[in-house]
Amino acid sequence: MNQPIRRLSFVVALLFASLLVSTTLIQFVWAKDLNARPDNRRTLLSTYARERGQILVGDTAIAKSVPADNEYKWLRTYPQGTAYAHITGYYSFYGAGGGLEQAENGLLSGSSDKLAFRRVSDFFTGRKTVGASLELTIDSAVQAAAVKALDGRKGAAVALNPSTGEILAMVSNPTYDPSGLAGHDLSKVDAAYKALNGNANKPLVNRAIGGDLYPPGSTFKIVTAAAALESGRFAPDTELPGPAVLDLPQTTVGLPNIGKRSCGANDTTTFLHAMEISCNSAFGYLGLQLGADALRDQAAKFGVGDQLSIPMRVTPSTVPADLNQPQLAQAAVGQYDVRVTPLQVAMLSAGVANRGIVMKPHLVRSVLSSDLSVIERAEPQELSKAVSPEVAAQLTEMMEAVVENGSGKPAQVDGVRVAGKTGTAETDRVSRAHAWFTGFAPANDPQIAVAVVVENGGDPDSEARGGGAVGGPIAKAMIEAGLKK
Amino acid sequence: MTTVSALSSRKGRNVELGLLVFAVAIVALAYINVGIAVEGAIPPSLVAVGTGFVVITAAFHITMRLRAPYADPLILPIATLLNGLGLVMINRLDLANGRDLAEGMALRQLMWSALAAGLAIAALIILRDHRILRRYTYLAGAIGFGLLLLPLVPGLGVENYGSRIWINLGPFSFQPGEIAKIVLAVFFAGYLVQTRDALSVAGRRILGLTLPRARDLGPILVAWMLSVGVLVLEKDLGSSLLFFGLFVAMLYVATERTSWVAIGLLLFCVGCWVANLLFSHVQRRVLLWLDTFSREALDTSDQLARGLMGMASGGMVGTGLGRGRPDLTYFAESDFIIPSFGEEIGLIGLFALLILYVLLVERGLRTAIGARDGFGKLLASGLAFSVALQCFVVVGGVTRVIPLTGLTMPFLSQGGSSLLANWTLVALLLRISDHARRPVPDPEAPNPVANEPTQVVKLR
């Protein structure tokens, strides 16, 4: 009987070997994936137990963790609440969501590979590992001005530093209070989240960089104008046809001007004047002359279609492919299926302002350790070259004229040369149009580029009463705040 | 059968004492470790719990010196260490759940340990020779099958979390399968010693295997039907696998014929396959096993998933005793005590625990090889293999090697029936081992009686 007993011991060895393998797989090979699971409560508790980094605007924390007297050890608070909700995002039992809390979770929680060295030194010195803090590029004055000027209306506002790509302000309305999601009372958090998530106005969505995107309306004429000037076939004083309704090939429906007015005597106008009054028929004509490829290429050079992360993921703006002639004319004035984010529209102005160079937009200026020493600093990066400096100068002149003489008058700032473009984007026949304004200032030394959209805020029959009247004052307030006027 | 291994006749009691001191020291350190980690101080209960634990250990050791001086010196220290570490983890979970010593599970576990060790001591004292058990072969068989099927009795058996392997006796609930494991090992050993010649008679050779005659298939078919019955009616794959695996292993040891193993495995696979086709509760277990993290599985039960996440959070070196969150898993102190350990002492610590079980089983199998009688060999190998198989079923269940079942980890898991059964098992192993390692009387030595001028002859 001894022989089978010896063989039985091999079976025993095999059984235990399988257990050694299975435990190794779980605790070593797959451990990282298991720990990263969103439903892993241990990971949640251990991340809650670690002090999360702050999110700073200047010296003020817009998100910080304060000690809590319960098993979670720390409570995440958002002192500025709604004003920065879409920048901070929220940190809840469901994990970090929206905004920087989610996009830079690794740094804020301290688990990022960038902090590996620090964690090792924490381990040996016995120091508690603390998440890294983020210092933002936001200018609190511009942000506050944008929030105040939007005054709760649905829409979004973005301000950029044209020469660096730093995001100076980013507001999306309607907004929410992230503190309501960061509490430790699970049922309250759950109720708050369900209410926000079920809200038809989608307050959790950051409209400045995502959501359903907007038709850009006439702000897209900056792209069409850039393509026209780049082609060398058109100059600001070129005569263009400007009838009340542009006849379109292949269809009986024409491309009408807002208010169905002619853009000049004898149904002709100059390129410059067409820009000033946002003449649809002239720009439709330009689009047809340039062709779909030139228009799409020019849009792409401004960043349309790029996958950007600021570090939040930005939904790429789109110009549809395979445009037929009527669609091309419509796209040239920002209608048809052209869809943009307000950030992209701000990048149009910023590109023109920065002599044709579009800088990569970003929100985080530097990553700071718990003792506020700098771990990483963002360097300005060139995203693309949109137009030549000469064309940029011509576009600047034309956009200055828009604010000085044309539809953008409400954005005028005393003593500052403001360049801009209005937009009134029709969504359907029933609702009011989206009111747009984008621009930059000072035109001779650009320091701030803005884009503003107010949903259903514009009068579809008047560009001046649409984008100019509604968007202009908001842009003006932001420019004034940015230039410390 | 006739093999007699010449084993060392060293008693090894001093080795045992040294190892026991070591085991108690590890347990005490672990206990203090938990106290410091959770409450920041050496736990005041250390004196009470520690004294109880030392008294039990000392009593057992003294019994060993008096009644089983030649027994294997590793078995008792390993069992003591595992039992002690189980106490530490149960106490740790008491603290995590805010139960103090008086109302906690650790104190009850300590009492059960004392009771179980007491029973084992009594068994060692009363049972002077394991061969006496052979007289009760068929009684053991009847009791064993009775115990196995007891949870099916209406009013007595209760279904806990899908498995019907518990019975309620007043304030106590009891897993009769644990005791059945030992009693059935006694039955199988006695039965197979008698019938092994018949079962190992050569049959036809097919594909290199000597297949038994059809009429000799009776016993294995009965065992198989019972195990399938347990699987289907008690809904417990673990008990079924344990019971049938034990039988097949002992049958193989008794007959030395591999064909029995092949037949057994085939039958078992067929049984499982059919059960999976026919019964929804089996399908649910299989779903949880194969697709633990699917939405559907998580909606059924996230226990296994939580255990896995606990183990993963422990990683290589563990969080340290008292520093993890094993209390987030249900049954962290019984069925899922291995994930609890995995979380807090890490993969390295878990390996150490598994090696302790390997050593225990190995000492049992060694005892079987050394035993001088067929019954002892079969019983020791059966008991040792049942421990191995149970470890495999439990740890394999929580680590997704096999579907999860409701068995407990020997010595570690919280639960009275488990402790009683496993300490009794250890007592039997010690008894056989004492017999196996006892020096053989030298036939060459002068027989003092034979030299007497007259002999007293017993007449009756």
Automatic annotation (TrEMBL), chain A:
Which Gene Ontology molecular function entries are recorded, alphabetically? penicillin binding; peptidoglycan L,D-transpeptidase activity
| Residues in Penicillin binding protein A dimerisation domain copies | 52-133
Give the matching InterPro entries: Beta-lactam/transpept (IPR050515), Beta-lactam/transpept-like (IPR012338), PBP_dimer_sf (IPR036138), PBPA_dimer (IPR054120), PCN-bd_Tpept (IPR001460)
Q: Does the keyword Cell cycle apply?
A: yes
Location of the Penicillin-binding protein transpeptidase domain: 155-479
Could you tell me the superkingdom of the organism this chain comes from?
Bacteria
**Keywords of the record:** Cell cycle, Cell division
* UniProt-listed SUPFAM superfamilies: beta-lactamase/transpeptidase-like (SSF56601), Penicillin binding protein dimerisation domain (SSF56519)
Instruction: Name one cellular component (GO) term.
Output: plasma membrane
**Does Cell cycle appear among the keywords?**
yes
What Pfam family does this protein match (any one)?
Transpeptidase
* Protein name (database record): Cell division protein FtsI
User: From which source organism is this entry?
Assistant: Knoellia locipacati
Automatic annotation (TrEMBL), chain B:
Principal place of residence: membrane
Give the GO terms filed under biological process for this record. Answer: cell division; regulation of cell shape
Region annotation (Disordered) ranges: 439-460
EC numbers: 2.4.99.28
- One Pfam family cited in the UniProt record for this chain: FTSW_RODA_SPOVE
- Annotated metabolic or biological route of this protein: Cell wall biogenesis; peptidoglycan biosynthesis
- What is the protein name stated in its UniProt record? peptidoglycan glycosyltransferase
